Batch of 2 targets.
Target 1
Amino acid sequence: METQSENRAFGGTQGVYRHASSTTHCEMTFGLFLPEEAKDGPVPLLWYLSGLTCTHENAMTKAGAQAWCAEQGIAIVFPDTSPRGDGVANDDAYDLGQGAGFYVNATQDPWAKHFQMWDYIAEELPALLAETFNLDMSRQAITGHSMGGHGALTLAMRLPGRFRSVSAFAPICNPTASDWGRKQLGAYLGDDTAAWTAHDATLLMREVGFDGPVLTDTGTADQFYELLKPEALAAAVSDRRQEATLRLQKGYDHSYFFVSTFMEEHVAFHAEALYRE
Amino acid sequence: METQSENRAFGGTQGVYRHASSTTHCEMTFGLFLPEEAKDGPVPLLWYLSGLTCTHENAMTKAGAQAWCAEQGIAIVFPDTSPRGDGVANDDAYDLGQGAGFYVNATQDPWAKHFQMWDYIAEELPALLAETFNLDMSRQAITGHSMGGHGALTLAMRLPGRFRSVSAFAPICNPTASDWGRKQLGAYLGDDTAAWTAHDATLLMREVGFDGPVLTDTGTADQFYELLKPEALAAAVSDRRQEATLRLQKGYDHSYFFVSTFMEEHVAFHAEALYRE
């Protein structure tokens, strides 16, 4: 693993690291903020999964999360959203291929070789973080934005016991019924829609739910509102009687101005779960 | 004036606006965050002047200032750092020409026609803001980063009564004695160094000082420390007995991770001055 940069921030360190991934068969880059407390002992870890077109960098520089994570003594990791590089399959569209991994393990060509983002986030990266940094892996939580909100919700529900809490900013809630989902799940997983259901937060909420608190925020002026389908997740949450807070925020859109506005509350929400005995 | 974008943020609005400037003879773009309170009455205004290579956008998306300005009910404006466009003079170096206006009125060709950033910030933009937005122009404060810290300090000292407080992040403190300064002041103002002294915060501190509180932060690990010369400003402040807090922050560098770390304290510092009767 190679250190790309380390900047002092909010009393801790904002690092950027690069490593050869055995899961995605390419070099992967991630950002990790470690609060000051990591010098003295392991700290809890919050995952932030980003949305379409993003790298590890967008949220790291624009979401304002470090201020609140420093206050709470929590580390936050910013993984990339896909494999990358000249040898990695891609597509001209912004919503398929590099920058658009959708947090699944692709089974279809030309994607299968590199696009193994589920395993990368669920297995390889946590193992690397655990062995390299001063993290308490028994205290993890997960959040994300848009496609990353989809990733956060699906990972949280399908890895019971891994995350104590899950939240999302403007998540894609029901990708099997959305143009943000059908296209990508079809490309990565094939035409058999049975394989898609494990990657749909609404369907997973109906099937398995989450053993912990859930928080989502979506802006009422989100320009992609119809693609996100918060109403589908809301119905599933209600039907299941899932412990959850689903909020619609008046006038907010899909941007990082929206994400940063509510970041303090999301971090506080996770801190409460992470510091519970 | 044309609205480029408006995003709801922290209960207020982050706008980006573009207008034809009579001072710089080109189209100029600026960002303005208005807190929720601006709906009900005029709010105080904080200026944020950016550093080399920046546009209006860098601090607007990376400094995390809106969270704290919203909390304090203060507007913050993010001007561009120079005139821009195909017809505007430029230089291949990152530190001269577009993105590097240095907040002076150029007198030398090829710069003189467009590079009138002092007048743009001191006169044209405040007049435009005052007539367009719900701002209390009797309550203004100013801050900035690096070249923008130089701009903030020199504007504050040379416009007595305009700003109630001035702060700076890693400011260029003594440009007449630095490679960040001599090159640019020479190019824009000519070889007669007498014209440079009005644009040197250390010399102005010795000559006129500032009628109000001054706050600066500089990182001890700033990679441009030798170019900034905080020791020169510190000496001038001490000799003058200027009301000031000059801080060196251990381990911090020149990046926006540094700026965002101390933004809360800078905004609180200005709020105290802005809300004083």
Target 2
Amino acid sequence: MLSFENDYSEGAHEKVLQLLMETNMVQESGYGSDSYTQQAIEKIKERLDCPEAEIKFLVGGTQTNQIVITTLLKNYEGVLAADTGHVSTHEAGAIEAGGHKVLTLPHTLGKIDASQVKDYLETYYADPVYQHMVAPGMVYISQPTEYGTLYSLEELTALSAVCREYEIPLYMDGARLGYGLMSKENDVALVDIAQLCDVFYIGATKIGALCGEALVFTKKNMPKHFLSSIKQHGGLLAKGRLLGVQFLALFSDNLYFDISQNAIDMAELLKTGFKEKGYKTLIDSPTNQQFFIIDNAKLEELSEKVKFSFWEKYDDQHSVVRFATSWATTEEAVAELLEMI
Amino acid sequence: MLSFENDYSEGAHEKVLQLLMETNMVQESGYGSDSYTQQAIEKIKERLDCPEAEIKFLVGGTQTNQIVITTLLKNYEGVLAADTGHVSTHEAGAIEAGGHKVLTLPHTLGKIDASQVKDYLETYYADPVYQHMVAPGMVYISQPTEYGTLYSLEELTALSAVCREYEIPLYMDGARLGYGLMSKENDVALVDIAQLCDVFYIGATKIGALCGEALVFTKKNMPKHFLSSIKQHGGLLAKGRLLGVQFLALFSDNLYFDISQNAIDMAELLKTGFKEKGYKTLIDSPTNQQFFIIDNAKLEELSEKVKFSFWEKYDDQHSVVRFATSWATTEEAVAELLEMI
Amino acid sequence: MLSFENDYSEGAHEKVLQLLMETNMVQESGYGSDSYTQQAIEKIKERLDCPEAEIKFLVGGTQTNQIVITTLLKNYEGVLAADTGHVSTHEAGAIEAGGHKVLTLPHTLGKIDASQVKDYLETYYADPVYQHMVAPGMVYISQPTEYGTLYSLEELTALSAVCREYEIPLYMDGARLGYGLMSKENDVALVDIAQLCDVFYIGATKIGALCGEALVFTKKNMPKHFLSSIKQHGGLLAKGRLLGVQFLALFSDNLYFDISQNAIDMAELLKTGFKEKGYKTLIDSPTNQQFFIIDNAKLEELSEKVKFSFWEKYDDQHSVVRFATSWATTEEAVAELLEMI
Amino acid sequence: MLSFENDYSEGAHEKVLQLLMETNMVQESGYGSDSYTQQAIEKIKERLDCPEAEIKFLVGGTQTNQIVITTLLKNYEGVLAADTGHVSTHEAGAIEAGGHKVLTLPHTLGKIDASQVKDYLETYYADPVYQHMVAPGMVYISQPTEYGTLYSLEELTALSAVCREYEIPLYMDGARLGYGLMSKENDVALVDIAQLCDVFYIGATKIGALCGEALVFTKKNMPKHFLSSIKQHGGLLAKGRLLGVQFLALFSDNLYFDISQNAIDMAELLKTGFKEKGYKTLIDSPTNQQFFIIDNAKLEELSEKVKFSFWEKYDDQHSVVRFATSWATTEEAVAELLEMI
């Protein structure tokens, strides 16, 4: 059965697998000290135009969020995030399990803005009993957001400025960063992110890899003994090469960006097709996640032929559902889907 | 340069990679709900002759230990382990980060025995202020141990009996389980482990996989919402298939056992060769880790031609070093090494 | 300067101090195994008409909340609470530091209702990826609430029924329970609480003691090794008698209830006085916390003569402030205050 | 029945209770912002001759240890302590519950020395995989130790020097500090401790107070938002005055030191008496805890007339038991005890 359920339904891009094959029997040291990891790091640093960047490869997004937030926050601090942020909702309490509160701000299409953050910080420090409350110690955003939307360069610059003013780090969850970078509406380049964020990650689990996220500290701010922290959180692979090789493939010959472009192209095709057939979007998402309002009867019929994600109830007759394209989506699959609707 | 540094220097066995290739573009659901994971679980259950076994695949050993120990222990409990146990020494505090003390017992060649455990439990409960101390709530052993040694069936049966008497789970860390199972000296079968342990894992990161451990709850004792606990600890792969496919390959056609046998055969060859040249062992290890006492001058010379692990100082002139064979070790490599010494 | 800042501005009721004096040099065992603690427990159990109640005395409210929530929840669970609940806002992240998320529900005058709880539970379990979210594992309410309001017997019964249906405990924070019990509007007796809640505490820090809360498990549901959990959280007093003696005094001769009555009487006097002078209340609180809307200029003047708590901004000219009466408030003090306004 | 079971069998010194009475109805602000707390802090700072000292009052020793260790350590660090240290053995896992490993060193009569600490640090950093192990991030000692012994000025100076060399804090648990300070054998003054330790506490629960420890940061090194950390650990008393008043009494007119002297005098009397009757000591303790080797038959007889603590088995016929004197012990009580033996 055809699936637009998510952007991790297939394995890895063939060039990624191929490099895994080619390098497979070379003996390398463990825990990320292998030569492929080093090469991949260099390629990414070049791409970021950020020589002082410190990079570690981790297996997944929740793990990365947990390690970053737990190691950067002081014990009395929490992380500010949109109430729709992945850390707020879908990580089974990983942040709290690490001892920290997620301090939620109401989202607008998945985003928070600089003034909300500033207000929160000001209100906190103005409160005579502020020490009875959790201190806001970091800002978490996702690019693209859980709603597929994007921060503009202006918005990101403003968020960065507030964080610098209050000396708290700005952290960007880039689980789908490639899909954001290649969106037509995007005006935030990788180099901007390296400038404006204190820490962020470039997601590959959803973009061409079997698993893997590249975590980047941009300001020589990687915590001391960070390898210990990764190990302590169960995130240190014995065969670190698994991640290094994959990122080496993805950051050679523009692969990461080219395959991200495919997801965007397929999403545009899909959106146009749905709109032509009269379907309405919940949000006019510029990235690879597309949200349509569909009649429930139609949905049931559709669900026998294609997989997608239920998002939320719209009204008694309609639901919002998500169709996700990816690096692996083909024109044929989109055409097949458009036939069905 | 030749390496006997550890048993995770190469990638994966070619049949594992091949199955990853073959299944790569099939669309599957995420988080371990894919069909390969299901097939792999069935194959393992058969092999264990334990239809009620509940199995989850996790990425690495520290992660597995942390998740098992944190979810099975009550907050006031700690885990009993040899002072040389991996959880006691080399996990960067992962168990304590999860809130639990490792209660160490003095080891004998990496092992603890039933009487030590019984004594600890009796002494604890006999203390009038036992509630001021951490309650022993689980026993952790590794098979083979960190010294390459093995629990016999008699020893394991006795440990199991004490645990049942005090109603605490017996947990076996099987990071190198295959190498233990195929050792000539071994008399503990997989089915025995499934009978005697409450929970254990079959390690594959060190035996043929890119990454992956198969965690087995043997008595319908997998904690509720265990998927949440995995997620909360950053251990839930979006592409759970990565683990499922690898275990499917390893548990088809006896692969896991055959390649484990190779490591044992190579270790025997290596040990015989060293002994013939007059080297002494620290421990007469029956598995894939071999520990030799070597003159420091010789070691320095050797270290330019081959990688190995420093284990500990023996005396002022000698060190103990470890040579590890693996599923990937060839006769040629062993011969080359024996030439050097 | 006169203070209505809170209900913990003075030391202890004189009868409490007196019993501390009288018993001071009697030698007793530590950690709550003293005879006064035992006597106090018996007196409270009688009052609750709940022979199976298990009672421990703890030092303060945040400590009590943290210990209860951490020991009763499984690691994958969070606690449902009003967004205005003390655990949600003013405990500096104590619940999260214990590893658990506070799952907030929008409050109505500080309260949540059974249908909100039921909806949350149903929605959670209906979600196909519910295991990616924190499981609701307990309901936390405060009586009176942080807004001084009270749950009626009907409301409490309904909450209790939902909790029983989903088999999660209902926990009542009774930091000011005496002031709730003696309110004219109250229809919930201590015996009802013992029936309807699974665990609750009777607060004394704010009602006559130097410090101390009596934590009650009502259904033989005190977790095993609970003394260890108290110790582990730094809550076990060497001189447990300090708490035992105070509760013995408070639960002899109806003292706890009589002095609670005083706070209520003084609050009524105060409210009537304010209203007669034309002040409006934010909430018509039936307990010892009274919230008035006051002109900012007037407030500044007032703040030089009397202490009170700023609550929140009302509009550009007005603020909401809280005046709290207590077991120690005198008619003279209220009269003096009413003179000032 | 007479008790030498411990040094917390009675309530508080009468002057402490008296000041609680006298100040009882004065209205003060909460959470340690009261005037008595301020006065007590000033008195202690004077006594320490350490104007930059930062002082907080906490309720008990385990709580203090947990808060200090959790806030000063980084997440990847553990605390070095004697294997007999209170944090290692009798705090029900409070340190591990805070996420940190206790790294034990073998004790000599309850003490560790500078060379052990230096060795541990050197060995740790020399290990090629040191980041897989818990980093030693603090040294914990107790003065007097759990065996009643004392660090000399020379020993303390050496420990301090190692800690400074490796830039890790030296923390002294002074649960019985007064009893150490007044010992005839002691050559470490309070001012030395303020110089040599980075953080320590002056215990009062066991020396004249109902409860209370004075935590001192000596180098302007109190962590930011420390009040939040106290609150988060359930250690912030609403009526902080309870602790402030008690320390104010104890540090007025030399009271803390005078009553500590009493315990030492009584311990000397007791020890001399035992020795005269032919009893042997396990350790020749110079402080208020005395450890005697006693025939088991005699012990059983004795246990019907006086309370003491079982310490450990000596041989099949003998046990080691502890008799503790305190601020409250009278010459009559000692005489009565000596009659019995």
